[in-house]
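Observation: inputs received (chain + zinc ion).
Thought: call the complex predictor directly.
Action: predict_structure
Action Input:
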Amino acid sequence: MVFSTWSDHFANCILARRHPGVRLAAVNVRVLIDGSSELVFDYAVPAGLDVRPGCRVRVPLRRKSATGTVLAIAAAEQMDFALRELESLIDPEPLITPVLLRTGEWIADYYGCGIETVIRSLLPESVRSEENSAKTRRIAVLDVPPDPAVLEKLVRRAPRQHAILSLIANAPGMRLPVADLGEGSAAALKGMEKAGLLRLDAEDVRRDPEADGVEEVLESQALALNPDQQRALDAILASMQSPAPKPILLLGVTGSGKTEVYLQAARHVLDLGKTVLVLVPEISLTPQTVRRFKARFAVQREQVAVLHSNLSQGERFDEWHRIRKGVARIVIGARSAVFAPLPDLGLMLVDEEHENTYKQENVPRYHGRDVAVLRAAFEGCAIVLGSATPSLESWHNTQTGKYTLLRLDQRVDAQSMPLVRTVDMRLEAAKHKGAVAILSDKLRTALEQRLEKGEQSILFLNRRGFARSLQCPQCGHVCQCPHCSVALTYHRTDERLICHVCGHQAIVPRKCPECKDPAIILQGYGTQKVEELLARVLPQAKIARIDADAMRRKHMLRDTLNAFKAHKIDILIGTQMIAKGLHFPNVTLVGILNADLSLHVPDFRAGERTFQLITQVAGRAGRGDVEGEVIVQTFTPHSPSIQYARKHDYDGFAEQEMEFRRLFCFPPYAHCAVLTSRSNHERRAEFTLQTLHLRLLEDLPPGIMLGEVLPSPLVRAHGQHRFQIILRCHRARPLTRHVQAVLARTSLPEDVTVVFDMDALSFS
Ligand code: ADP
Ligand code: ZN
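Observation:
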């Protein structure tokens, strides 16, 4: 296709709207054509047409006409061929608000990606595509009550018409869907319309995602806030008075009542006639938070929109337009909801702001929290980031004065923080003559005590499956994924070996594939094994497991959590799916089985993640009248992450971790990006990155720390070999721009993919 010859060039052209004063001789636009194939073409704009990104347009395509969305605009270039002109504008106004467009431009610039990829995220496909439209139904309407004299006449002459008229007259608003008038009324209605007795119209019907099968939520009332909560709420409301509110970090220990503060702040904003956007890490994993918002605003159910990945195209279309029109005034969603087109935003809330899921792992690789902060600044609205374990980035921003810090250091109702003990698993292994124990004696006794007292327990292990791997004791062979550099995990329920990176499945060999020894054994353990072990040692306990394998069925997570709440389950075993925001007052014991799992990964954030995970999981204990206890099993009990989490000491943890980050110049003291190459050909992946490394080195702007070309920790995934360069810089822009400039002038081999990830959270 001829367009691609200058398409790379296009991205570098100055966006026409950045220079509104300059009159451009001509303008070209890049258009994403509606339809499933994601075609992108460039067109010339006829003189006099005001086209902006986000506008819907009609364009010629081959011998037909098609519709699409304008992704980008550029000053026309000298070319040796003429572009076809677009035909017309469908809507005079772009679908994207100016603030969102500005946010999109910021993302493109900051993360180094094309504006077109950002626009695609900004406007969901269901909204862009011509195929979706509002669902309508025909209605019969009376604008004035029927004349009694007319009715009188109709009773005898046309009883059917009389009946119809009376029905409509008694319907709310004197409007009734035609479908409700029964079969065969169509002819009568037409006649009546002609006679001027009524009016036929069409109205939009909302495809309500909650219409069926969703539990009733009872309305909840605002609680009387404790002094700390009141102070936090007052500060949030005060910040809303400012024309340029400073972002607020709400650091509140688990169970300190952050959500109640969010709810009351949101209520104020709605009362002011403005709108609220709430971001949560993942809708499906935070059912309790979502439900609390629904419950508080139950009487205005129409005003709440929950954006989640299970919406149908039609539902998504309707919710988007409900939001755009200001009907839905409180929106709850994950990362991508940051682009929800709410008019007149008054407040943005980012719950569990430290969560990694806010970072998008494919293009555009934006961080939902950071984009939220940016959008709030552009909108001039207040924003609150909340967490019990804030990211060090946000913490740092409170230290430099960029953010305001608010704290809730106590749990509500004078509940104490749970008592956290560690169990040294090295000693435990020695007790059992070297065999790796899953349950320490201490944890097992504690579980038994809870069972006797009728209290509930949660066991956390961040590894699903039955066994970590299958290994031959004779030759040491480990069954590996043929496409990835990881061991296959044994899953007993499926009787399969499964790769947790690419999903590859293999049958379980009866003997070692290498040396044919039949003594091949399972190494390590996962949640399935824990479940089996517990069923054996505590046969009287009712046990359930929550992990990606057990939760494949729809509503399974919700049902299991409900059963746990109703105490139909004594012990809940789970992966990080249970680490977030769950509140069960009867849980008095939390066991963390292998706290070291997240500690020994090649990532400078390993300590931070471990601290967050232990603190969050521990925070599920003792949220009722009985004090909670947490038992942390670890092989490295003295590691700072574990010790500070044990003492609930966020400040202590932050202080020592920040010192380490400062010494080695890691975030938040510098921005850190990864440049990765991937290819089926190992040499080509490596060579490509080496070439890029050389070019990056030429005229390297001062301040950029350029790492060496190294194999990625996960050296192979999905059959592709991976190499990476880590880059750091105190300022983000020079880094992104330098890398983009080098990438733009380097032609990459076809079978090598290069990925640039700014502010990367994953280094695997
Ligand atoms: P966090 O979000 O900080 O973990 P939550 O908002 O979940 O804490 O609060 C924990 C529990 O305390 C919830 O059941 C909540 O309803 C209750 N709660 C919050 N604020 C108050 C208050 N002021 N008075 C009484 N109970 C409260
Ligand atoms: Zn694999």
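Thought: report the result.
Final Answer: Residues 223-226, 229, 252, 254-260, 412-413, 583 surround adenosine-5'-diphosphate (ligand 1) (CB under 6 Å). The chain has five domains: 6-94, 136-204, 227-413, 419-466+525-658, 671-758.
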